[in-house]
Amino acid sequence: MTPIIRFEHVSVNAHEKTILSDISFELFPGEKAVLCGKSGSGKSSILRTLLGLHALSRGMVYFRGKPLDYLSVQAIRSCTAYIGQEPVLGADSVREALLLPFQFKAHRGRQPAEAQLIEALQRLQLPADILKQASNHISVGEKQRIALARGLLLGKNLYLLDEVTSALDEASKQAVFEVFSDPGLTVLSVAHDPDWISRCNRVIKLEEGRLIQDVT
């Protein structure tokens, strides 16, 4: 089986500092991997490198067997949902935020029906009437789940998640766990949450930009 993502002896420098050093790992379809380590250990830098936001100083990143370049970065972004600690929803209302990607050429003509919007929200313990609310009047935890719902509506199968349960209560976390139990979804995440880590089948530990442990 070909890995979706492969880092091969990757090093990255930023602001005259080495932020990743000789990182090598593979991520296969359906895996749920979590990057662990202290603040500044390079966890989020791995996600940004994969999205083409950091230039490589050494090594190579492969996506579905192809080396990272302009075209493969576009392919990664087209099939990936990246969700940070406080997602920017990019629209005034929750409804508009969920429908925003469907205005673009790549997704035009695939706009979900009302019932699909409500189903995606309910899967994540969000009420249907949140569609009417302003994006700047909802909580961080609600923004995280709305960003996840948008990924589900778009049919994304690769998720890059940065502390995505950091603002969730127990019931909301359980809903997120249930969504990502789907074997068709591949996840590379950053987390400190022990509950999230315990549900991942791969734990990759970093220290000062180096990979020190990879446990499956």
Automatic annotation (TrEMBL):
Residues 5-215 form the ABC transporter domain. Signal peptide: none annotated. One of its GO terms (molecular function) is ATP hydrolysis activity. The keyword ATP-binding applies. Pfam families: ABC_tran. Keywords: ATP-binding, Nucleotide-binding. It comes from the Bacteria. CDD domains: ABCC_MRP_Like. PANTHER family: ATP-BINDING CASSETTE SUB-FAMILY B, COMPONENT LINKED WITH THE ASSEMBLY OF CYTOCHROME' TRANSPORT TRANSMEMBRANE ATP-BINDING PROTEIN ABC TRANSPORTER CYDD-RELATED. This is Putative ABC transport system ATP-binding protein. It comes from Candidatus Methylobacter favarea.
